[in-house]
Each structure stands twice: as structure tokens, then as C-alpha cells.
Amino acid sequence: MKKIIILSLMFFIFVSCQNVIKETKTQKKADTTNEHLLMSTVWFQNSAEMRAIYYQSFNLAKMIVDKSISEVGKSQKKAVVLDIDETVLDNSPFQVKCVKTGQNYSTKTWKEWTSLSKAKALPGAVEFTNYAKNNGVDVFYISNRLEEELDVTMKNMKKLKFSCVDSAHFLLKTTESGKKQRRANIEGKYKIILLIGDNLTDYSEIYENRNEKLAIDIVDKNSGDFGTKFIILPNPMYGDWEKAIYGNTYKLSKEIKNKKLKDCLLGY
Ligand SMILES: [Mg+2]
User: Fold this and answer.
1) With 70 as the cut, is the pLDDT of residue 10 above it?
2) Which residues, chain by chain, have CB under 5 Å from ion ligand 1?
3) What average pLDDT does the chain have?
4) What's the CATH fold of domain 33-198?
5) What is the 199 CA–ligand 1 centroid distance (Å)?
């Protein structure tokens, strides 16, 4: 009898250990994959619709420039303000690396990519900046790339033949992510006729630290701004929209983030 109890106990311990090993392996897999990025990155790189949206947006931007020139007059200095990443430069190869290797965004991994100065231009972006400049409108780039990335960024954009690629037209991140002050610096000297970006904070500080409604209510309230004062571009790969779902922080495990992504879905 004693022998049977000991054998049963040993069997129980063995099964428990196997379950723990299995759970650990599953946990490890969840922590080292970025499968949630797969579909959005495939869409960004392979859908003709993505390219059409960018062309559509920059075509609209040209129309707004034309309208503003006739309304504002030639005496007042005018500017358009553009974000850089996923607005004029395509960093989807960085996302591909995240999908394939499981690596995450960090200052180090990001700089490994930007230091190559090999991002491609997004459809219609180069032509739009040239159009604005040729019509007497200055182009400013407000980006949260770090100031130490200025040279590699300008090198990349010069190769692609963007307009206004000089340090006076780049306002990169120094101490704060918010772009309000940097917009104000331009507004002191220019009339900003249009802003373009893939994140709502490229337009206004009212979209920083989104509320529990994910700022959807604020967008609805300001629906008249879009396509008139601000042109929003599509970025299904990352952005403040995702951060808001996590509760305005990325400092969570992948397992918890994946759960939050699933929890926010509205089914029927
Ligand atoms: Mg961006």
C-alpha cells in the first residue's frame, strides 16, 4: 500500500512538472513573438489601398495649399507642418524585423534602423513637399526622432529629394514628446496652413494622454478639422491609439497587452 502511495505521489509530481514546463514554454513564446503586427504590416507593405490613401491624402493637401494661397495672400509667410515617420518616411521594414525576430522597439533597435538612412518615401510625399515649396510655402518637419538622429534623417530625405531638408526646418525631440511648443515656434513666424501626420498628436495636444474613450469622442467633436486643417494618414502598425488601449503605457508584458487588445474588441 505504502509503495502505491509513493508511486502515485511521484506520478503526480511528474505530471505537475510537465505542466509547469509546458506553461513556461507557452509564456516564453508569447513574450518573444510579435504576431499581432503581422496583418497590419502586411497591409502597409502590400495593399494597393494603402498607396491609394497616401496619394489621396497628398492630392487633398495640394488642394488645401492652393486654397490657402488664394485666401491668405502672398504677403504672409506660410508653412505646412509634416510629421516624418509613417507620414513621409516608410519604416515598415523595422516592423518586419520586429515580426521576424520578436525584437521590440527601443532607442537602440530603432537607431540601428534609422542610422542606415534607407527608409523609402511614402507615396506622394516627396511630390507634395516640392509642390508646397514651389508655391512659396515652407515645409517644416516636426518629429519625435531624437536630435542625434538629425544627420541620418536629413541624409535619408536628401537622397529622396524632399524639399526644405536643412536643420532650420527640422524640429526633432529634445526633452518632451508633445509637439505643442514646437508648433508654436513655427506659428510665431509663419501662418500654418496645414498639418499632416499619422498620429492625432501631430495635430493637437488635445489628443495627448487619451481618455478611457480612447479620444474617439474628441475626434467626433472635432470632425470638421480632418481634411481641412489636418490630414491624418493610416498607421495600423503602432501609435498612440494602441498605447491608449494599454492604459497609456507600454510597460506591460506582451501577454497582458494581447489580452487588452482582445478585451477591447466589440463583437455581436
Ligand atoms: Mg509618425
Assistant:
1) no
2) 83, 85-86, 198
3) 91
4) Rossmann fold (3.40.50)
5) 6
CA of 188 to the centre of ligand 1 (A): 24
Residue 8 in this model has a pLDDT that exceeds 70: no
Decide: 189 and 224 in contact? Cβ < 8 Å. Answer: no
CA-CA-CA-CA dihedral for 129, 150, 201, 131, to nearest 10: 0
In angstroms, the CA 145 to CA 157 distance is 14
- What's the confidence (pLDDT) of residue 233? 98
- Report the separation in Å between the CA atom of 192 and the middle of ligand 1, taken as the mean of its atom positions: 19
Q: Ligand 1: distance of its center to the CA of 180 in Å?
A: 15
Report how far ligand 1's centroid is from the alpha carbon of 85 (Å). Answer: 4
Q: Is the pTM of this model over 0.85?
A: yes
Task: Read off the C-alpha cell for 46.
Answer: 502590400
Can you tell me the distance from the alpha carbon of 192 to that of 139, in angstroms, rounded to the nearest whole number? 10
Per the CB < 8 A criterion, the answer to whether 155 and 89 are in contact is no
CA–centroid distance, residue 143 to ligand 1 (Å): 7
Helix H, strand E, coil C: the string for 222-237 is CHHHECCCEEECCCCC
Centre of ligand 1 from the C-alpha of residue 50, in Å: 15
* Domain range annotation of the chain: 33-198
* Ligand 1 midpoint to CA 157 (Å): 15
What is the rounded average pLDDT of the residues 137-146? 98
Q: What is the pLDDT of residues 64-112, one digit of tens each?
A: 999 999 998 778 999 999 999 999 999 999 999 999 999 999 999 999 9
Tell me which of 17-31, 42-56, 133-147, 249-263 is least confident: 17-31
